[in-house]
Amino acid sequence: MNIERLSERAKEYQKAVRRLQEALAEDLSNILVYDGVIQRFEFTYELAWKLIKAYLEYEGIADVKSPRAAFKEAFTAGLIDNGEIWLEMIDDRNLTAHTYNEENAKQIYAKVKEKYFPQFATLANKIAEAVK
Predict the structure, then answer these.
(1) Where does the pLDDT of residue 131 fall: very low under 50, low under 70, confident under 90, or very high at 90 and above?
(2) Could you say which of 49, 64, 111, 115 would form a disulfide bridge with 69 (CB–CB 3.0 to 4.6 Å)?
(3) Three-point CA angle 93, 95, 98, nearest 5°
(4) CATH assignment at residue 71
(5) Would you place residue 96 in the very low, low, confident or very high pLDDT band (cuts 50, 70, 90)?
């Protein structure tokens, strides 16, 4: 992994974070907002763990093969602040990918808004500083 490729991945991730933020700002009177936020959460989550993987490889810290390993190593390296929230994301990501239930969708929407989005935004800022 070179700095140019890492920077490119960081920009892709930052764009996904902005798109998730846009979806979270939408009016909840439209039930489709829940679906849109969940879809953007899934996409942002995938980009996040792959960006973490790339960053860890670039820094020579670790060669990770899974989101769980990436989040644990990122927490140890100080790249993410709350490892438990990132590990919780794994379960919610798996839940959204394999089943659909309106009540679950609303619960996950709330978690994305209150817990996961701030973590995504913090990661975007830390990576942006690192690839300057």
Answers:
(1) confident
(2) 64
(3) 105
(4) 1.20.120.330
(5) confident
Q: Whose CA is closest to 109, among 24, 13, 45? A: 24
Write down the residue that tokens 């700002």 correspond to: 25
Tokens standing for residue 89? 């994301």
CA distance 106 to 58: 37
CA distances from 47 to 20, 75, 120 (A): 12, 17, 10
What are the tokens at 28? 């909840």
Q: Please, how many CA atoms are within 13 Å of residue 49, restricted to the half-sphere of its CB?
A: 20
pTM of the model: 0.94
- Between residues 96 and 89, the one the model is more confident about: 89
Helix (H, G, I), strand (E, B) or coil at 132: coil
Residues 26-42 have pLDDT tens digits of 999 988 999 999 999 99
How many separate domains does the chain show?
A: 1
Structural domain harbouring 46: 3-131
